[in-house]
């Protein structure tokens, strides 16, 4: 399980990006990968899953 910070999230469009605490890489997150609602600057935990355009954050939860 990875930990990071929500850098951007658009509720209306249902997507955003999470910056990983360890690697500083940013990962795409879609509303379908959320376990609970998130907002910008939330600290979250997440798993990574291969998507069509690279790794996506899934099972995202606020910590």
UniProtKB/TrEMBL annotation:
PROSITE patterns: CSD_2 (PS51857)
Alphabetical UniProt keywords: Cytoplasm
TM segment ranges: none
Any one annotated GO CC term: cytosol
SMART domains assigned to the protein according to its UniProt record, in alphabetical order: CSP
Chain coiled-coil ranges: none
GO MF terms, alphabetically ordered: nucleic acid binding
Domain CSD: 1-62
A Pfam family this chain is assigned to: CSD
InterPro entries: Cold_shock_CspA, Cold_shock_domain, CSD, CSP_DNA-bd, NA-bd_OB-fold
Keyword Transmembrane: no
Compartment(s) where it occurs, according to its Swiss-Prot or TrEMBL record: Cytoplasm
Main location: cytoplasm
Domain of life: Bacteria
Cleavable signal peptide: none
Record-linked PANTHER family: COLD SHOCK DOMAIN CONTAINING PROTEINS
Protein name: Cold shock domain-containing protein
Organism field: Draconibacterium aestuarii
């Amino acid at each position: 399980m990875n930990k990071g910070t929500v850098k951007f999230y658009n509720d209306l469009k249902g997507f955003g990006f999470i910056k990983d605490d360890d690697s500083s890489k940013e990962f795409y997150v879609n509303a379908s990968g959320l376990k609970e609602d998130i907002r910008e600057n939330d600290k979250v935990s997440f798993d990574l899953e291969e998507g069509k355009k690279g790794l996506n954050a899934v099972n995202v939860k606020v910590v």
